[in-house]
Design goal:
With 137 residues, the protein is mainly α. The protein is built from 4 helices and 2 strands. The longest helix has 36 residues.
Length: 137
């Protein structure tokens, strides 16, 4: 049985489609960007933590502060994946409606971007470990 070398899909695209069904912009995400999966995963965990805290803080003094922090963390999460400019484009497309943006984009991120990005990172680690552990000829 031959050793198989496998290439991963390196990009994934999303289309920003308006109410009339017209594509306003296509955004391409580099799935092999260094640290993408790790950085995005950390930000996502922080979003979940802040959501839980904001839920407990409803009607309390620190609610507004937590919601502001949550909003910034959502932006940081999107920037970790899409970059600063494309995140601005996405925010403009959703007219600053973070809830709609998150509800629409996060499933795509969880199902398409993060799994492939993690697989690429794992493959790179395995390749590095294998290549460094081989004896020199």
């Amino acid at each position: 049985m031959a050793f198989k070398l496998k290439r991963f899909k390196k990009t994934e695209s999303i289309e920003l489609v308006n109410e009339e069904g017209v594509t306003e912009k296509v955004i391409t995400v580099r799935l092999d960007k260094a640290g993408l999966a790790m950085n995005a995963s950390k930000k996502f965990v922080e979003i979940q933590r802040l959501l839980a805290m904001a839920e407990k803080a409803r009607g309390k003094e620190n609610e507004e502060e937590l919601v502001t922090k949550l909003g910034q963390t959502v932006i940081d999460f999107f920037e970790a994946i899409f970059g600063e400019e494309d995140t601005k484009t996405i925010l403009e497309f959703y007219e600053g409606n973070y809830i709609e943006m998150v509800l629409e984009a996060v499933p795509f991120i969880q199902e398409k971007i993060l799994p492939v990005s993690r697989a690429i990172a794992q493959q790179k680690r395995r390749t590095a470990i294998t290549s460094y552990s081989r004896p020199l000829m």
